[in-house]
Amino acid sequence: MADQDSSAVLEPEPISAVLFDFHNTLVHGGDATTWLATGWTAAGRPDTPPDGLGAEPAAAAAAFLDRVWEHAHEIDPDSSRDESPQQHRRVFLATVVRCPGIDADLAEALYTVMPMRWEAYAETVPVLTALRERGVRTAIVSNIGFDLRPIIERSNIVVDAVVLSYEVHSVKPAAGIFQHALDLLGASAQETLMVGDSWRDDSGAAALGIRTLLLPRTDGPHHGLAGVLRLVSG
């Protein structure tokens, strides 16, 4: 008779720490048409983008802005923009001026008002609160070239640690940025879950043995973050 222990199913360690990407995971970028209009006003332009550019070019510019970081990848495939504030701004400006109708002055204004457009998903604060009540440690792990803390505070987001690529000199999918977060939380890879939206960047956590949940970008106020609670309690 076979040893019963040899056929036992080994359960993974319970999840006691969760790492979250920020943009398109905990917050969304808002409506791109409104972003364009806000930047237009900030640049001192009269009337509205459709008045100044025409309806179709304005709609095309908003569509471009809606996917601006995907466009940025075309000229910055190694995400050098996330290594410093200067690089982040430079890559953004170089990207958006490729869109007809967006000149250098408008690009500057759009960059300035961009963080004002970011808003937490409807589930973000409730899910983070539920995790905290369960004793689960949490961290934001973001590829970014500027300080997210004002947005985090404004959005009533509470986590145990904030790890930003330009501060720790490591850009996802490199292992270093994930390891830095684990060290801050005092967590092992085996007891941690990574939640993000990018197969290219966030799946780098799996190389360390971190279970990884990818939630592709969604438009609107909901993102499906409640699934994290089911994984943690499973």
Any overview of this molecule?
This is HAD family hydrolase. Keywords: Hydrolase. It comes from Ornithinimicrobium faecis. Pfam families: Hydrolase. This protein is an alpha/beta fold and 234 residues long. The model has no long low-confidence stretch (mean pLDDT 93). The protein has two domains: 17-28 and 118-233, Rossmann fold (3-Layer(aba) Sandwich); 32-117, no CATH class. Helix 1 (32-42) packs across helix 3, helix 4 (68-75) packs across helix 5 (85-96) and helix 5 (85-96) packs across helix 6. The chain has helices at residues 32-42, 49-53, 55-66, 68-75, 85-96, 104-113, 124-133, 149-154, 165-168, 175-185, 226-233, and strands at residues 17-20, 27-28, 119-120, 137-142, 161-164, 192-196, 211-214. The protein has a five-stranded parallel β-sheet with strand order 5-4-1-6-7, with helices on both faces. Strands 2-3 form a two-stranded antiparallel ribbon.
| CATH fold category name of the largest domain | Rossmann fold
Total strands: the figure is 7
- CATH level-1 class of the largest domain: Alpha Beta
Major β-sheet profile: 5 strands, parallel
Segments where pLDDT lies below 50 for 5+ residues?
none
CATH level-two architecture of the largest domain:
3-Layer(aba) Sandwich
- Strand order within the widest sheet? 5-4-1-6-7
| Bulk shape | elongated
